[in-house]
């Protein structure tokens, strides 16, 4: 009986160890499970065109370096907030300039040794050091301009100033101040008011109030603006170049406008996360992501406009992209350091003075 008891105890202990082992596997860092114990690199990235991204950039890199790349998805704000937590796992992160500057100010990025990333020298000048020489380059350059439905708006829109036209009353959606592009709307209003926002914010807000009184919408998410456009609730929107093609699939009569005053540059950066133990591999990935091979593949699939000036595209291939020296030279660059310093007071004033009620 005593021997039987010992056997039962042994079985129970063995079973418990097995269960704990299985449980431990389920809680393990995902990069070590079923990956043949390969070295891993975790990339925090936008949740867009995953299949094409893997074919164009991820699989070739994995094969060349005999590593496993894990993609951690989310929008800018989700991934920026994750980056600030102690349990952040990412080694490399792709963020819009608005969030990347905040991350720099909070000390969340490693300083880059650009000698280890030679493809930086093949980028357009505005893409090399958009947020300072110590930090990551832009892997793509987009633009913030105007999209409108030419079937409804017969008089062509050519200027930021046209947004104040009476015939656009109740037909327009713009980003709210709290969005990535919201501050650009305020900069645009300052310019239309003939003011430098660093010297006279009052004129900028007075001009914005005119748009509000013209029954314009101010949406909190780009998806809300796009949905309003696709559903015919608005006929004009402030939008990003990379959004245009998807809108055109729904509304074939839409037109993209680079206003005569210039569109605003949207710069997406790639940076190495502070504290990564895989800095050398991270540098290899950044260099690969900036390569002519990857940049052209992404451009041909209409995923990203190329920041690498060695990429050559035909007019047909370049359609819908921000492409070429002349186009990029005409973009209006944004001082995100100044904007981040001013944003809190701008948001407070916007909420008091500018209507954000949805129509």
From TrEMBL:
PROSITE patterns: PROKAR_LIPOPROTEIN. One of its GO terms (molecular function) is thiamine binding. GO terms for cellular component: outer membrane-bounded periplasmic space. Pfam families: SBP_bac_6. Keywords: Signal. GO terms for biological process: thiamine transport. It comes from the Bacteria. This is Spermidine/putrescine-binding periplasmic protein. It comes from Gottschalkia purinilytica. The lineage of its organism: Bacteria, Bacillati, Bacillota, Tissierellia, Tissierellales.
């Amino acid at each position: 009986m005593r021997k039987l008891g010992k056997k039962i105890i042994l079985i129970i202990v063995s079973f418990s160890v097995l269960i704990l082992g299985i449980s431990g596997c389920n809680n393990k860092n995902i990069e070590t499970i079923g990956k043949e114990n390969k070295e891993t690199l975790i990339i925090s990235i936008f949740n867009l065109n995953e299949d094409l991204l893997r074919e164009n950039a991820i699989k070739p890199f994995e094969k060349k370096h005999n590593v496993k790349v894990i993609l951690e998805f989310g929008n800018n704000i989700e991934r920026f907030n994750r980056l600030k937590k102690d349990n952040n796992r990412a080694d490399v992160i792709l963020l819009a300039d608005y969030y990347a500057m905040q991350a720099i100010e909070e000390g969340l990025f490693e300083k880059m040794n650009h000698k280890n990333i030679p493809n930086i020298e093949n980028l357009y000048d505005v893409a090399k050091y958009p947020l300072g020489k110590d930090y990551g380059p832009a892997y793509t350059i987009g633009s913030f301009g105007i999209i409108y439905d030419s079937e409804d708006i017969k008089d062509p829109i050519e200027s930021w100033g046209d947004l104040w036209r009476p015939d656009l009353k109740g037909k327009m959606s713009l980003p709210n101040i709290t969005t990535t592009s919201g501050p650009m709307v305020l900069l645009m209003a300052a310019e239309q008011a003939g003011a430098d926002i660093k010297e006279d914010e009052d004129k900028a807000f007075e001009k914005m109030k005119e748009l509000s009184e013209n029954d314009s919408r101010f949406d909190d998410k780009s998806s809300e603006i796009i949905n309003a456009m696709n559903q015919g609730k608005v006929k004009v929107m402030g939008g990003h170049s990379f959004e245009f093609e998807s809108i055109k699939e729904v509304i074939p009569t839409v037109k993209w406008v680079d206003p005569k005053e210039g569109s605003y540059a949207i710069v997406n950066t790639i940076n190495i996360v502070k504290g990564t133990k895989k800095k050398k591999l991270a540098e290899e990935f950044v260099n690969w992501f900036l390569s002519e091979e990857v940049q052209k593949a992404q451009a041909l699939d209409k995923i990203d406009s190329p920041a690498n000036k060695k990429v050559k595209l035909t007019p047909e291939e370049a359609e819908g992209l921000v492409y070429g020296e002349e186009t990029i030279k005409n973009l209006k660059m944004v001082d995100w350091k100044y904007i981040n310093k001013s944003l809190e007071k701008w948001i407070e004033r916007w909420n008091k003075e500018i209507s954000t009620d949805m129509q």
